[in-house]
Amino acid sequence: MSGTKEEDRKGSSEWREFFWNPRTHELLGRTATSWGLILLFYVIFYLFLAGMFALTMYIMLLTLDDFKPTWQDRLATPGMMIRPKGEMLEITYSVSDIETWGGFVQNLDTFLSLYNDSHQAQTNDNCPPDQYFIQEDSGEVRNNPKRSCQFNRTMLEDCSGRTDQFYGYKDGEPCVLIKMNRVINMLPGKDGQSPYVTCAAKGEDSDKIGPLAYFPPNGTFNLMYYPYYGKKSQVNYTQPLVAVKFLNATRNADINVECKINSNTLSDGSERDKFAGRVSFKLRINT
């Protein structure tokens, strides 16, 4: 027993001496000078790393342009989206229940507020149609801010919310707005031919969709809204829209709809990318 106690005291004494040795003035086996040199090394080392990181970021930022991306890695055909937004790209409602479609109407009202004719007249130009609105820079001198062409809400006619404040939802003839994603410097048509939208039902639903009406006429994205120069260059840019009105869709049935862009410069979307140049959604109009 005495041997064990003596060994414990010896071990405890060795541990205390390792932590602080009063004879050599060493802390954890190192003198103050040794600790100072190690700390100095790591301070210099991490300052060097921080400096390298800052220099790298500075050089990278010098290559960036505030008005357009230096490198553009984009799809051959831009994606598309619809309004109003339903859950999981579904527009389902009951004609007889305003609570099921009132939110869609409010969503469209809010979205189209920037398209009011009075607002467009104040901020954008009345451009000649069917030709690109090109605004090139002069060498290093930027032509900014660039102007934008008017897209007036009334161009959507029956789907503008002006002639029918309920956008057809009250009567079971709903309007769906379609927009093409913005792509800087994209030219979506040639020879004066604007891209246009067509919608159809998928597969067995083709007999349920009924006739469709497009606004503006023929469902076109006029060439005058292109090219798009970016958010900072073209601060008042108003994205063109196409409205599709379902005039006599079958009630109480799911209708899988696909709308796609047709253009003589944009390639067709592939099966590998379901959203290139198209958008699919489900429509169900209950009584």
From TrEMBL:
One cellular component (GO) term of this entry: sodium:potassium-exchanging ATPase complex
Subcellular localization, as worded in the UniProt entry: Cell membrane; Membrane
GO terms for biological process, alphabetical: intracellular potassium ion homeostasis; intracellular sodium ion homeostasis; potassium ion import across plasma membrane; sodium ion export across plasma membrane
Domain of life: Eukaryota
Keywords: Cell membrane, Disulfide bond, Glycoprotein, Ion transport, Membrane, Potassium, Potassium transport, Signal-anchor, Sodium, Sodium transport, Sodium/potassium transport, Transmembrane, Transmembrane helix, Transport
Gene Ontology terms, MF aspect: ATPase activator activity
Keyword Magnesium in annotation: no
Transmembrane feature ranges: 37-64
Membrane topology value: Single-pass type II membrane protein
Primary localization class, coarse: membrane
Keyword Oxidoreductase: no
Function recorded in the entry: This is the non-catalytic component of the active enzyme, which catalyzes the hydrolysis of ATP coupled with the exchange of Na(+) and K(+) ions across the plasma membrane.
Family statement drawn from the similarity comment of this UniProt entry: Belongs to the X(+)/potassium ATPases subunit beta family.
Protein name: Sodium/potassium-transporting ATPase subunit beta
Organism for this UniProt entry: Cynoglossus semilaevis (Tongue sole)
